[in-house]
Design goal:
mainly alpha; 2 helices; rod-shaped
Length: 93
C-alpha cells in the first residue's frame, strides 16, 4: 500500500482495501472451488485483514505517542508561562 499524505487519502485507501477484501470473500463464497483451495484463499484474506489491522493499530499507537509528546510540551510551556506571568505581575504562588 502506498503512503498517504492526506488523512482522507489514507481513509480512502483503507476503505478501498476492505471493499476489495469483501468482494473477494463474496467471490469465494459463490465459487465452487475445492475445500482445500477455498481454505487457502480465505486464509490469505484473513492474513491481509490482519496486516491492515496491524497497520491501523500501529498508526493509532504512533498518534497516541505524538499526542503524549505534545501534551508534555504544552505542560512545559504552561509552566514557563506561569513563571513569566508571576514575574510580570509580581505575584507568587
Amino acid at each position: 500500500m502506498t503512503q498517504a499524505n492526506d488523512p482522507n487519502d489514507f481513509n480512502r485507501e483503507i476503505n478501498r482495501r476492505f471493499r476489495d477484501l469483501s468482494w473477494r470473500v463474496e467471490r469465494l463464497e459463490s465459487s465452487q472451488m475445492p475445500a482445500r483451495s477455498l481454505d487457502q484463499a480465505f486464509n490469505q484474506i484473513y492474513d491481509e485483514m490482519d496486516a491492515l489491522e496491524d497497520k491501523i493499530d500501529g498508526l493509532r499507537d504512533e498518534m497516541r505517542e505524538r499526542f503524549d509528546e505534545l501534551d508534555q510540551k504544552f505542560d512545559i510551556l504552561n509552566k514557563k508561562f506561569e513563571v513569566v506571568m508571576n514575574y510580570i505581575t509580581g505575584s507568587e504562588k
